[in-house]
Inverse folding.
């Protein structure tokens, strides 16, 4: 286990990159300003967010997930895989199965090992719900499935779902025709979603394959997202567009998602470490002035 001051690990899961830290090794506090500076692609280390080890009374490990804008996320499927790899590779555990506590619920992780190295991981992500009060979404209590919503003068059919964090899924016949950079932020910040939302545009290719574009809450365009893939899979099953086991294809790669009869979700995919290092004295000094 590493003990150097201001030690960080950078990893990615299908192109969705995070910095992982043990706050006990930091000489500063992870304030929103510090998070924004560290995640900055030009002024900092650059990442889609920060994963921080946290205490937990209900799981083997606790995790806090920070978006690059300084806000906190309830859950991240890619983040969970990255964090699980961090825990195993850097000696926090040598067990191939363990649990991780997030604000969006406890996730159970099974590592698939070959010659002592992690090849894939399977996570029990939690249960999907389409109930508006649990997403949350404004308006009366209801299931939000194939519902009309207007954004910037465009009328869309959305399916809203929570898998521990909020998602807005829009099924389209052709992803290339989507006005992604306009509609993504409009939907993320739509008044219908009081806590903002993650956004996915989805094109069903076959009963076992869906292609997606992802606009992540607090991060913007993202190459991959485990909870986004889970939400799209659940929405696809709920609308009878796919089978219960489906490959979700994003720009960064594929995730295999299985949706149970009780709407429980299991996700299988990889994570890769990029580098380990320490934040420089110059960067640490600049955090004090933000």
């Amino acid at each position: 286990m590493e003990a150097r001051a201001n030690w960080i690990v950078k990893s990615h899961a299908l192109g969705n990159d995070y910095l992982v830290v043990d706050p006990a090794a930091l000489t500063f506090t992870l304030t929103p300003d510090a998070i924004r500076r560290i995640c900055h692609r030009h002024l900092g280390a650059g990442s889609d967010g920060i994963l921080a080890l946290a205490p937990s009374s209900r799981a083997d490990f606790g995790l806090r997930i920070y978006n690059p804008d300084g806000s906190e996320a309830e859950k991240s499927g890619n983040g969970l895989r990255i964090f699980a790899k961090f825990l195993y590779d850097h000696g926090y555990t040598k067990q191939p199965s363990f649990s991780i506590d997030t604000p969006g619920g406890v996730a159970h992780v099974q590592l698939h090992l070959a010659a002592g190295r992690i090849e894939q991981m399977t996570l029990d992500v939690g249960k999907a719900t389409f109930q508006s009060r649990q997403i949350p979404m404004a308006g009366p209590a209801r299931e939000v499935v194939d519902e009309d919503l207007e954004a910037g003068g465009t009328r869309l059919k959305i399916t809203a779902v929570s898998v521990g964090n909020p998602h807005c899924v829009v099924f389209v016949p052709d992803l290339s025709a989507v006005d992604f950079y306009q509609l993504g932020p409009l939907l993320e910040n739509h008044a219908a979603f009081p806590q903002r939302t993650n956004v996915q545009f989805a094109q069903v290719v076959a009963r076992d394959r869906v292609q997606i574009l992802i606009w992540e809450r607090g991060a913007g365009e993202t190459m991959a997202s485990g909870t986004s893939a889970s939400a799209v899979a659940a929405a696809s099953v709920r609308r009878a567009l796919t089978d219960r086991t489906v490959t979700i294809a994003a720009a960064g790669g594929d995730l295999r998602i299985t949706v149970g009869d009780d709407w429980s979700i299991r996700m299988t995919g990889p994570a890769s470490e990029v580098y380990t290092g320490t934040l420089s004295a110059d960067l640490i000094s600049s955090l004090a002035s933000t």
